[in-house]
Automatic annotation (TrEMBL):
This is Cytochrome P450. The lineage of its organism: Bacteria, Bacillati, Actinomycetota, Actinomycetes, Kitasatosporales. Belongs to the cytochrome P450 family. It comes from the Bacteria. CDD domains: CYP107-like. Pfam families: p450. Coiled coil: none annotated.
Length: 396
């Protein structure tokens, strides 16, 4: 029987994540912790161990391999749970082959102008005020607009989706039924949206997926609904927090902000450094050991849950010298913020495009951008799943 960890490990991850990672990398790089629901899991924190584990086929994402009593992740109905984050090959391979076509270099590049137009329109809306919450006014609506346009989601549902995502990423302890209500609402939304696309297909990704056959193998209805949920959820949740974290990183490092303003050609490399320095995806999707596995010299028993610390890997001094310093000239290639192996983020090209445009447009528009409150007043999402600011007040 797996023994739960003391909850103070979880508290440390929420209140001082990078300090906690540094301590764990030195003292217990593979450590048992309590998951978000209190059930036990292993946390892997060193870069080399995390990278190797991401590519280790003995670690499954399929919940059927989970040991009873260990952390399993979100509890979702089958119509939302049959997605790539819960699938091993061959099903994962089959579905990923369909989705990757949506994120080819050519298709993503075709989104550059629309994303830039959205960014400019959002900045137009706040320019006259001289101050704004950059999360609510910019970092959140930019990716939600992009992913909704890509999937063909009507504009009048976008506010609902933002609220749903927040309810799942950082559940409110005072509203224990909110997550279940959210899942029911999302399932109803996607079911109705897919039915509408079947009746009236458009020039969008969801319409394409409904019509697509891959060697005669059509997506099942649950797979289709789950895929729409995953693309929508991940396409918003990851990008909004990456943008907010990147802007805060620049404001915390004024010399780097000045360097980027002086040389915009640094931006592509800076995007990789932003993701390494303060990634939104704290952990990879949980894994379950198919068999007894040794990670970093520690035996993980078959069926036990493993968290792979993407955020910790990015701050490992064994891989990135002076890792707690944002350095836009650093070679940050090889970071694991978007994963590694067969589960590497399928939307990585879009995430990079959005972050590049969001930061570039913001700095062009506001040469005197500054933090609008003392840094100690900033508040982070109460979540170990995703690292992001609740608000980012700025002046300009």
């Amino acid at each position: 029987m797996v023994t739960p960890a003391k909850p103070d490990h979880l508290d440390g991850l929420m209140t001082d994540p990078y300090g906690t990672y540094a301590h764990l990398r030195e003292s217990a790089p593979v450590r048992r912790i309590a998951g978000p629901d209190g059930t036990p899991a292993w946390l892997v924190t060193r870069y080399a161990d995390v990278r190797a584990a991401l590519a280790d086929q003995r670690l499954s994402v399929d919940k059927r391999h989970a040991l009873p009593g260990s952390y399993r992740g979100f509890s979702l109905p089958p119509a939302l749970d049959a997605n790539m984050l819960n699938m091993d090959p061959p099903d994962h391979t089959r579905i990923r082959r369909l989705v990757v076509k949506a994120f080819t270099k050519h298709r993503v590049e075709s989104l550059r102008a629309p994303v830039r137009r959205t960014a400019d329109a959002l900045l137009d809306a706040i320019e006259g005020a001289g101050r704004a919450d950059l999360v609510a006014a910019y970092a959140a609506p930019l990716p939600i607009t992009t992913i909704c346009d890509l999937l063909g989601v009507p504009a009048d549902h976008r506010r609902d989706f933002t609220d749903w995502t927040d309810a799942l990423i950082a559940p409110d302890p005072a509203k224990p039924d909110r997550a279940k209500e959210t899942v029911v609402a999302m399932l109803g939304f996607y079911t109705a949206l897919i039915a509408d696309k079947r009746e009236r297909p458009g020039e969008d990704l969801l319409s394409d997926l409904i019509a697509t056959r891959d060697g005669g193998d059509r997506l099942s209805e649950d797979e289709l609904t789950s895929l729409a949920f995953l693309l929508h959820f991940a396409g918003y949740e990851n990008a909004v927090q990456l943008i907010g974290n990147a802007v805060l990183g620049l404001l915390r490092h004024p010399e780097q902000l000045a360097a980027l303003r002086a040389d915009p050609a640094l931006l592509p490399g800076a995007v990789e450094e932003f993701m390494r320095y303060d990634t939104s995806a704290v952990f990879s999707i949980r894994r379950f050991a198919r068999e007894d596995v040794t990670i970093g010299g520690v035996r993980v028993a078959a069926g036990e849950t493993v968290f792979l610390g993407l955020g910790s890997a990015g701050r490992d001094p064994g891989r990135f010298p002076d890792p707690d310093r944002l350095d836009l000239t650093r070679d940050a290639s090889g970071h694991l913020a978007l994963g590694h192996g067969i589960h590497h983020c399928v939307g990585a090209p879009l995430a990079r495009l959005e972050l590049t445009i969001a930061i570039g447009a913001l700095l062009e528009r506001f040469p005197d951008l500054a933090l609008g409150v003392p840094e100690e007043e900033l508040r982070w999402r109460p979540s170990i799943r995703a690292r992001g600011l609740l608000a980012l007040p700025v002046t300009f």
